[in-house]
Amino acid sequence: MTTARAPGRDGPLSGVRVVELAGIGPGPFAAMLLADLGADVVRVDRPGGAALGIDPAYDVTNRNKRSVVVDLKAADGAARVLDLAARADVLIEGYRPGVAERLGVGPDACRARNPRLVYGRMTGWGQQGPLAPRAGHDIAYIAVTGALGMIGAPDEPPAVPANLLGDYAGGSLYLVVGVLAALHHARATGTGQVVDAAIVDGASHLAAMIHGMLAAGGWQDRRGANLLDGGCPYYGTYETADGGYMAVGALEPQFYEEFLTLIGLEDHRAAHTDVTRWSELRAAVAARFKSRTRDEWTAVFENSDACVAPVLSLREAPHHPHLAARGTFTDHSGITQPAPAPRFSATPTTVRTGPARPGADTLDVARDWDVPALREDGA
């Protein structure tokens, strides 16, 4: 347990030590989630920083962490990481399979020093399989799982959902779930284990309900033809008079009824269950939304159960009245960013520190973790 913070003061994972071997994408985000929950996350940065990295001052995925710099290719680089692993509860790495082993910091080497260690591995393709040694990115991982093919209009190419669906939903979140489950097991048995979190596994798992609907005949295996993929006219988005968009999710009969009343299309009640009238309903709804601005429609549906909301931009979202009231976003280090989630009644979380600067915490970590001092240049 670290001496800098008391258990529970900064979240439910206060006192848990995590080593993060620096990378990009889902690994750092998973480590940020653990740090947001109160873990003492030490990021092992490489000299020169990571490829594709943004200015460290703005990389909020490194908030609530501390950083040391270690050159794993140096003669004593692996030994320095193993010293940290010996005192950690969790280690996270996102290299291609076999790379950590070649660098001397694979699961066998780390767990030889610390049998209780949970060793989390974050990859796109996983540790085994024909594509395991190949490069990849979010878009390729979700493409082969069928997830990408579900998104978008039927007469257009699949829409790319940023890197939210693969990297972060199918990757980071599953790694964190796996690490926390393995940590629970380690504390009960005294033995750690390796967690193989592959984005192709997680993204496939996210579609479990839809696979069930497909097997039952309740989902067509094509884009824009189903209840939840934009095929349904009362579950989709519509353009407004000023070029904005409104999102409609009036699925249940009572919500659909309220939606029709507020938008002024009460004569389309029968279209709720009549698929043959969906094209007619879609055209009518589209025409109505085009008659007013996004803000005007937002006012119409405010305080209703019609399940209609404005489509906001990233810069607009923090100012939405509901999100502002909840404190869903916070300002820290001059950056507006999402606040930690979820929320805890007894061990509240917060943004404690801004993005960790590479190597800035070397001496503090050496002291707090009681490891041999690390020079700040990583040599």
Topology overview:
Layout: E1 17-21, H1 26-36, E2 40-45, E3 65-69, H2 77-86, E4 90-93, H3 99-103, H4 107-113, E5 118-123, H5 138-145, H6 164-189, E6 194-198, H7 199-206, H8 208-215, E7 235-239, E8 245-249, H9 253-263, H10 278-289, H11 294-301, E9 308-310, H12 321-326, E10 329-332, E11 335-338, H13 362-368
Parallel strand pairs: 1-2, 1-4, 2-3, 4-5, 5-6
Antiparallel strand pairs: 7-8, 8-9, 10-11
Terminal residue distance:
27 Å
The coarse overall form would be elongated
Helix content: 25-40%
Low-confidence runs: 1-8
- The main sheet orders its strands as 3-2-1-4-5-6
Structural class: alpha/beta
Q: Using DSSP, what is the number of strands?
A: 11
Largest sheet: 6 strands, parallel
- The rounded Rg comes to 24 Å
Secondary-structure element order, as H and E? EHEEHEHHEHHEHHEEHHHEHEEH
- Beta-strand residue percentage: 5-15%
What is the number of helical segments per DSSP (H or I, 4+ residues)?
A: 13
Give the mean pLDDT.
Answer: 94
Structure description:
The protein contains 13 helices and eleven strands. It has 379 residues and is an alpha/beta fold. A six-stranded parallel sheet has the order 3-2-1-4-5-6, sandwiched between helices. Strands 7-8-9 form a three-stranded antiparallel sheet, with helices on one face. α1 packs across α6, α5 (138-145) crosses α6 (164-189) and α5 (138-145) packs across α7 (199-206). The longest helix has 26 residues, at 164-189. Residues 1-8 have low confidence and may be disordered.
